[in-house]
Amino acid sequence: MADIVVKTEDVVKEYRMGSNILRALDGINIEIERGEYISLMGPSGSGKSTLFNMIGALDRPTEGQVYIDGQNMSQLSQRQIAAFRCHRVGYIFQSYNLLHVRSAHGNVTLPMIFAGIPEKQRNEKAEQLLDLVGLGDRMYHLPDELSGGQRQRVAIARALANDPSIVLADEPTANLDTITGREIIDLIKRLNTDQSVTVISATHDLKMLDVSDRIVDIRDGLVERIRNRDEIDIEVGEVGGEGE
Amino acid sequence: MQQRTPIQEQIDLPFVESLRISFQSLKIRFGRSIITTAGITLGIAFLVSVWTNNEIGLALQESGRQSAINTFEETTEKGISTKDIWLIVMSLIVCVVGIANSMLMAVTERFREIGTMKCLGALDGFVVRLFLLESGFQGFSGALIGALIGTLGAVLLGLKDYGLDLFFYFPLLPAQPEDGTMQLGVIVVILLGCILGMILAVIGSSFPAWRAAKLPPAEAMRTEV
User: B49-85 burial, b for 16+ CB within 10 Å, e for fewer?
Assistant: First the structure.
């Protein structure tokens, strides 16, 4: 039996905009296995970021349920949700969302402070993680002193601080140039294979296709189709061919 | 679906950790903190100068030395003119609005930071506590500087009006003259100014911080200023 880490059941999310109601998600059902690399693909406004927020407990669905590790998220207390965000999930955002007042090192230690890890231990771990993402020599720089790619590396190191079982990445390469974007994708993929972290990424970056195990196409708030790795390989070739 | 270890409850952080984070934030954001603090300083300086000026006027009036130089026309029997009351109330309103506005802006521009901290596992209460500490410190230091500037201003104004007599009758401590009016004294005015500045700063920031902390992180991070 497959080890399902994320399961959504008829997830609906509506936003009220004045007198209009916008239905961003219209009944999403997906299952994600542990250790998978999943890409949620779709054009802007398709609902992929909204789904990303639902899976990461960053927002509440209007209807439906989200299960993580078999736990119904709507039944968790505020304290449990905070602990879930702290320990189980690592978030990587398009705009990095680093705290500007904290150095790279300070950003990576923050989730460990929230987890109650002693100072010495968290400092060592932060150094290790920043080394891992290739920022060993810029640890004490503030985010404003780092390039886009370096900031995203800090965000990745921070996402890994409490050894999460899931890494959620929302358009992690959208603000980066092609080469830096590729490096970031490779780094995330390496974490996925080396550390068996489940990666769920909302993206419309085609470069992310060939590292994904499955692609969930989202359109108008619905799952349009789910493609497997072997189907993806063929399409990447086509995309490459078209571009040349 | 297999169930792994159940999700624990998030722990409370020790107070010293909050203190450290909030001071670090104030330090690195020094320029912005100074501007916010300056807003508090100005409000309190205005209030305290008007108030102290009034206290000095009352003290000198009590001593019988100010009659020649009293410029207020509507002096009441008890010594405080309606104009004085009007000035104090107005300065109080300016002070309240100014400080509330400074703090609201300072917190609203940090909604994304609040959302991010919650993504990393911060409890709502912890976020509010950080802002409470930051604004309390800013409020107190801003108000103290403001109160001292205000007092200095009032003393200089008093020197112009009353000359060196001012120092002989300077209302430093509270006093209760025979006519039954209550003179607070400059020290109490300074103290009240500091407390007021701190309370206003804390209320002004904790309300929006609490509101932001209650929002789901996705929404807090979406907020644009």
Answer: bbbbbbbbbbbbbbeebbeeeeeeeebeeebbbeebe
